[in-house]
Amino acid sequence: MSDCSRANIASRAALQQLARGEGRHRCCSTPDMRAYSTDLKERLVRAVAAGQPMREAARRFGVAVTTVKRAVVQQRETGSLERRPIPGGPRRIGKDQEAILLARLQAAPDATVLEHCAWWAEQSGQELSEATMWRAIRRLGWTHKKKHWQPVNATRKRAQPGARRSPTSTHSSSSSSTRAARTSP
Fold this sequence. Notes:
mainly alpha
């Protein structure tokens, strides 16, 4: 069986997975998104090296054109198509330590972030920045309101960052400042 027919069978199988709701698609940002396999990236690079345009290779393998471009550039620059390490380090306040922080928030709701940082350094011996403490507190679902910490209001639906707000009241087509003034008869 030739490489071309194997690739067509593989791309048909990928399309069938998408039709069943399995796998991934370039337009979907699902939480189970994983990196493309090294094997797929090798096939993409081979197809482009054999003279196939990137758009055709992307369509043939069911990936975005940018995926093809990234694979070709990565092969050219590094000589390898292995996954790159994920940037960043581990959390300073891990899942196992969040219960300790939650107890602290409940015990001292009037404390400032800097006071929480100082307390954390005293308790665990680990210095934290204000930003790290803020992120940990927000992960726990707490917010700073009216000079003390409290859980985020559970009845209020929080929109994703960058999402548009839904209108809270019906707005007329023009405000009083933009309406033409009435003239007396």
